[in-house]
């Protein structure tokens, strides 16, 4: 057993040495280090697997079977899509600009990332470098308001964004902020 005979159980962050710098006598230090090493290996494997799943979900979303690319610009309203972010700045000559993103676009989906799983944009921050490294693009669905002669028109578009290094900051070339109605 890795539990000490007295006191609190040994945890992942518990010191392996006593106050004087000697190995603790109440635990098997070698076994504790081995278990900690294995724990960190599993943690890293888990992170890598989550990245692979995200990429797979993006690919599945991007290559929906039986749907032509033109048809992807028309979003089905069978399931409600909740906005979660707004594009408040798009830089010239950036990947976002080339994809057709505009300031004021409301983000509905970013590949497989949506209002239920964006984790305060961490999901996007984790996905973008992976896509850029693999040279892959991601379908993003936006809601855009346009003023016309007779009033305001709201359209939903799916754009193809390819994250990559460019002459500005980041890999997208736009600023994404939290959306509030």
TrEMBL record:
Keyword Chaperone among record annotations: yes
Pfam families, per the entry: Nas2_N (PF18265), PDZ_6 (PF17820)
InterPro entries (alphabetical): Nas2_N, PDZ, PDZ_6, PDZ_sf, PSMD9
GO CC annotations on file: cytoplasm; nucleus
Domain PDZ: 54-146
GO BP annotations, alphabetical order: proteasome regulatory particle assembly
Keywords in alphabetical order: Chaperone
The family this protein is said to belong to: Belongs to the proteasome subunit p27 family.
Record's protein name: PDZ domain-containing protein
């Amino acid at each position: 057993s890795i539990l000490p005979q007295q006191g609190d159980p040994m945890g992942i962050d518990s010191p392996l040495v006593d106050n004087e710098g000697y190995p603790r006598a109440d635990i098997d230090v070698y076994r504790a280090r081995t278990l900690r090493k294995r724990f960190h290996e599993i943690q890293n494997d888990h992170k890598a697997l989550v990245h692979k799943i995200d990429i797979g979900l993006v690919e599945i979303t991007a290559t929906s079977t039986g749907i032509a690319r033109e048809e992807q610009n028309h979003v089905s309203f069978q399931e409600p899509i909740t906005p979660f972010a707004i594009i408040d700045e798009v830089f010239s000559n950036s990947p976002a600009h080339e994809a057709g993103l505009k300031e004021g676009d409301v983000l509905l989906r970013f590949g497989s990332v949506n209002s239920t799983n964006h984790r305060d944009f961490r999901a996007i921050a984790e996905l973008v470098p992976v896509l850029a490294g693999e040279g892959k693009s991601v379908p993003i669905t936006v809601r855009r308001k346009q003023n016309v002669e007779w009033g305001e028109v709201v359209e939903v578009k799916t754009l193809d964004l390819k994250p990559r290094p460019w002459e500005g900051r980041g890999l997208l070339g736009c600023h994404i902020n939290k959306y509030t109605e």
